[in-house]
Each structure stands twice: as structure tokens, then as C-alpha cells.
């Protein structure tokens, strides 16, 4: 009953262009709004987003769904000349990774709690990302859950739009079918498999150790 009233109120507010965000957004999004870093407030006026976020103009690589952050930590330590931006939608995981980053004293890492699909599609500036890393995305094996998968054509198009010329999307998964679906989505979004561009060496994560005993399917994709 209560949640219906909330939904009705949100629906009415959504029709009004002057309605404050707090009237439109559902509860989780309101929580996100409270804890989202302040730079999002200035987005409309920020043309050079990454220099604002990192305080320098180094190349930016994005990891989507870092989980416990094993790959992120390794990359950040091995390549301090690169800025790493991780987007993870599970808040507990974000806090865990942020604590690891702080403990290691890495200044080239930022971790954002958000849906990567929303951030990449709406916030990341065009031609601004040197590489995307997508390792072991959730498989959502049931057919009726497929629409929850991370990589679809819309995301693929956004990845392509936001990559710098020569930039790449690196993908790995334990499931051949999922890899083929991701490949199809990326190709439909304007990317193509690159036989020459390889992902940087990454550690085997706990997830990979547990689920990829039968092998890992990996590939890199560049703008076609
Ligand atoms: C199966 S885990 C793999 C974690 C890590 N990449 C690894 O290899 O160990 C998938 C991760 O992607 C995150 N994730 C899934 N969909 C996401 C989305 N739309 N935006 C951000 N993170 C997402 C999940 O919360 C989870 O941490």
C-alpha cells in the first residue's frame, strides 16, 4: 500500500520538469544520490570530466564490476601512470575495494557505486577512455533473466562512443555461450574482435579460480 502511494507520487512528480529529484527517485536511488561523490553535481559544466576526477590528464581505463578488486589492485600497482576508474553496483563490494585502495595508498584509482550501464551511457564523455575491462560478468543463465546481463547492444554502442581511437574493450568469462553473446552485442554496437590487441596480464581472481576450472574465454575488441 505504502509503496504504491510512493510510486504514484513519483509518477506524478516525474511529469513535472521542476520536481526535485528526491520526489522522482525510488528509495535506493535516493540513497545513491546522497552518497554519490559531489562531482556529479557539477557535471553539466564539466567538459574535462577525468581531469576533474583525477586531478591530472593521464589516460583513463574503466573496470566494470571489479567485485573484490583483485584485478583493479594489480593494474593500479603495475601502471601508476594510468588512472583506473571502477564502477561496481554492489555497495558492500565498493566499500571493500575502496578500503583496499586506501590501504595501498593508490592515488590513481577511483571507485564509484553505480550501475555501470547508466554511467557509461550517460556520464562518460565521448572518446575519453583508453580501455574497458569486463571480467566475469554475471551470467544470468535463465532465459527470462537474460535482459539483466551487463553487455547488450546499447552498452556496446556506449563503450564504442566513449573509447579513444585505438582503445579496446577487454572481456573474459568462464562461459563460452556468454562470451559469444557478448561478442555479438559488441559487434552489433560497432566494435570488432582484435586479433592483435591483448588485455594486460591480470591475476586469477577468486571468482575465476572457482568457476573457470574448465577454461576462460577471453577477447579484446576495438572500434571497427
Ligand atoms: C561475477 S562478479 C565478477 C567480479 C570480478 N570481475 C572478478 O572477476 O572476480 C560480477 C561483478 O559485476 C558487478 N556488476 C554486475 N552488473 C553491474 C552493473 N550493471 N554495474 C556495475 N557493476 C555490476 C557485480 O556486482 C559483481 O561484482
Fill in the keyword field for this structure.
2 domains, 7 strands, Rossmann fold, 224 residues, alpha/beta, 7-stranded mixed beta sheet, 10 helices, binds S-adenosylmethionine
What is this entry, summarized?
With 224 residues, the chain is an alpha/beta fold.
User: At the fourth CATH level, what is the homologous superfamily of the largest domain?
Assistant: Vaccinia Virus protein VP39
Domain unit count: 2
Query: What count of helical segments does DSSP give?
Result: 10
What is the name of the CATH architecture of the largest domain?
3-Layer(aba) Sandwich
Q: What oligomeric arrangement do these chains adopt?
A: single chain
Q: How would you describe the shape?
A: globular
String of helices and strands: HHHHEHEHEHEHEHEHE
Mean pLDDT: 86
Tell me the β content.
15-25%
Cα radius of gyration in angstroms: 18 Å
Unreliable runs, pLDDT <50, ≥5 residues? 17-25
- How many strands? 7
- Structural category is alpha/beta
